Predict the structure.
Amino acid sequence: MEEKMSDIADLAGLKAWLAERRAIITDPARARNFGLTFPKGVLLLGVPGCGKSLCAKAVAREWSLPLLKLDPANLYNKYVGESEKNFKRAMSTAEKMAPVVLWIDELEKAFSASGGDEDAGLSARIFGTFLSWLQDRQGDVFVVATANDVAKLPPEFLRKGRFDEIFFVDLPDAEARSSLLSVHLKKRGQDPARFDLARLVGATDGFSGAEVEQSIVSGLYTAFSAKKELSSQILLDEIARTRPISQTMGDKIAWLREWSRDKTRSAH
């Protein structure tokens, strides 16, 4: 199923920013005459499971552009020089397909060495090549990069000019969780009006979007196995059995929020 912006229940700030730039895609001649160039892209930082990757796919669909995903695992090669060639080949492919959306998931993993001086040197070389490409790319390539672990992200990525904007994606608030519950229930043929959304919203405080969705999926398995209809109580039981990311990674999330306060723009 192709993702749409309407599938993203939150992130109003990010969606508004993207909507403003959609006009450049749909009317490039007028944009050029107005002095605007094709947007460079966005870096999405924040809590895992809160819609960053979904955004990359939804942007491509909303803008009616092809989506390419750069998988860092496929870049690295044991033979000297091959990794750099793989990277340049990937970037060349993106430029040839332009206009295109290039999605780089978990950016920090792409440029962190897996061990040893050789790995560190290779990562540094590819990282340098990527920074140069970001600055001098030929072709309309909109980069959507996501990152969960800011501590491992090279600081050069955070400099103004690498990306058009850096957004912080936090856990969904009560309003967003209500929308998430409705979206995922409808997606699976359930009528949200049959459920006590207020109780479900309260019970999912501190849940990521992915955890809200998984609670519904688990509830459906339970109801199907018991030959019952999905109910609020079944969902509440599944929610109670879940240890959300706000508990398992509470200190890290608190640090991330503090770090992002004056370095990023809120996606909400």
